[in-house]
Design goal:
With 483 residues, this protein is α/β, with parallel strands linked by helices. Strand 6 and strand 7 form a beta hairpin. The protein is elongated and about 120 Å long.
């Protein structure tokens, strides 16, 4: 912490007396400069405590002298009494009080060198503390980046070190925020981000200083650091260190992500080419546990940005890979619902699901899922099953009159129930079957809560007297609903 006029005046051995400026004694002292020049401003940088005995000053010249010191930006004036003056000139004190310049009376017994030493010790201690703080922060940030914390851990550590909030932008989109509530600042900074091409920019936002600094990465990323007070020397060094380690960590993550993506795409190609045994050996060798067969195979089509977001949402959760202009995911039947939910959240995607298939039958499952995804895209649906898509071809073989009569008899209990206004069972059953029995997706399509949908399907099963968990029953009902 920098030495202030208040702390210096509080050092009893110096015997300093505050004459003016009691309300601004929190000013930091950059250095001490003894001089008897009446116009010393050419030799000052600002922030100094100027020491003088007033050898060339009197009641007439003091006011102009004080105003020159204020213009030069000095922190305060130490006036030594007992040599040139028995007391500080009244005009000097009055003018200093008027313009807000702190004046400290220095007694005859206190040599100026004692004040210089006190300030020097404080400056040296402050610089040492700054150096130690920077060194420890650099170690903490580097250790975090190299460990399991990764880029997100670096941001959390940086926010703590500067006692502020931190945002990481990919262009103008917030990708990380610490704390999470700081994400709201992203929109407010968008205009500044668009202006910033490279380097650093400091802006004011809600009374806080915000430092924007571009990262040295392939993609255009910007770090934003918001603090209640402007960053000091240590704070600026800490932010610069964070920028360096973040740039390195993000580039490493990007390279690793690209390698993982290429590997997974290659594994899908091996499986599609009938090389299931080799694909599984490679997957195991990379440290990943192959999904338990038999597998459900999902294919999603959509814009490149939506496919990228889906891959990001599934990263680390299950096996998903880019394959041509689609995203392919596979695993046990339990993965179908979370993948469909993720696609629904991303939006703009259309998927097909096939299976279950054994690893050696992956190629056939992939082809069926691709055809179902194309059907979903044509019909603007989130998900179509291969079984559902294939069943449509059978409808042409059924006599329409026979199918209609059969359908009326089978679905009659549901339609009579719906006529009472107690629930839309027929449409709920149709939507549920259409989305392969996925509660959240079907409920979202119907605009009802999933518990409401579960109750409706349970009621439909009761009225139909059939087990809706049976694939045969589901297929029969789906065909009837299409007639």
């Amino acid at each position: 912490m920098a030495l202030t006029l208040a702390r210096l005046a509080a050092e009893r051995p110096l015997g300093l007396r505050v004459l003016t400026g009691e309300d601004v004694l929190d000013r930091p002292i950059g250095w001490v400069h003894p001089t008897e020049l009446t116009e010393p401003q050419a030799f000052l940088e600002g922030g100094e405590l100027l020491l003088t005995t007033g050898l060339a000053l009197d009641e007439e010249t003091s006011p102009a002298y004080v105003r020159r010191l204020v213009d030069a930006g000095v922190a305060g004036l130490g006036f030594g009494v007992g040599l040139s003056h028995d007391e500080v000139p009244r005009a000097l004190v009055a003018t200093a009080a008027e313009v807000g310049l702190p004046v400290l009376e220095v007694p005859r017994k206190t040599p100026f060198i004692a004040i210089t030493r006190a300030v020097s010790r404080a400056v040296a201690a402050d610089e040492y503390a700054t150096t130690v703080r920077i060194g420890r922060a650099q170690q903490d940030l580097t250790r975090t980046a190299a460990g399991k914390g990764g880029p997100a851990g670096v941001l959390r550590k940086l926010a703590k070190l500067v006692d502020g909030w931190v945002l990481l932008f990919d262009r103008t989109t917030v990708t990380e925020a610490t704390p999470a509530s700081a994400r709201a600042y992203g929109v407010l900074l968008r205009e500044e981000l668009e202006r910033l091409r490279t380097g650093t920019r400091a802006v004011s936002l809600d009374g806080r200083e915000v430092v924007l600094q571009t990262l040295d990465t392939g993609a255009r990323r910007v770090l934003a650091v918001g603090t209640a007070e402007p960053l000091d020397t240590a704070g600026r060094h800490i932010v610069n260190t964070a920028v360096s380690v973040l740039s390195l960590a993000l580039e490493q993550d990007r390279a690793q992500a690209a390698a993982r993506e290429a590997l997974r795409t290659g594994l899908v190609e091996l499986l599609a080419g009938g090389q299931a045994e080799l694909a599984l050996r490679v997957l195991t060798a990379t440290g990943e546990k192959p999904p338990e067969p038999p597998w459900s195979v999902l294919v999603f089509l959509g814009p490149p940005a939506a496919r990228r977001r889906l891959l990001g949402a599934l990263e680390g959760e299950l096996f998903a890979a880019r394959s041509g202009a689609s995203v392919v995911a596979f695993g046990p039947a339990s993965v179908v619902e979370p993948v469909a939910d993720a696609a629904l959240r991303v939006g703009g995607l259309h998927g097909g699901v096939a299976g279950p298939v054994a690893p050696r039958e992956f190629s056939a499952g992939l082809e069926q899922a691709e055809l179902a995804a194309q059907a979903a895209e044509a019909e603007d649906k989130i998900l179509v099953s291969a079984a559902e898509h294939s069943a449509r071809g059978l409808l042409s073989l059924i006599d329409p009159v026979v199918a209609r009569v059969y359908g009326e008899n089978l679905l009659g209990p549901l339609r009579r129930h719906d006529e009472t206004g107690r629930g839309d069972l027929v449409e709920s059953l149709r939507c549920w079957l259409e989305h392969h029995g996925h509660w959240d997706v079907a409920a979202a399509r119907l605009g009802v809560h999933r518990h409401t949908l579960r109750n409706r399907i349970a009621k439909a099963q009761e009225l139909l007297g059939r087990d809706l968990d049976s694939p045969g029953v589901r297929a029969e009902l789906w065909v009837v609903l299409q007639t």
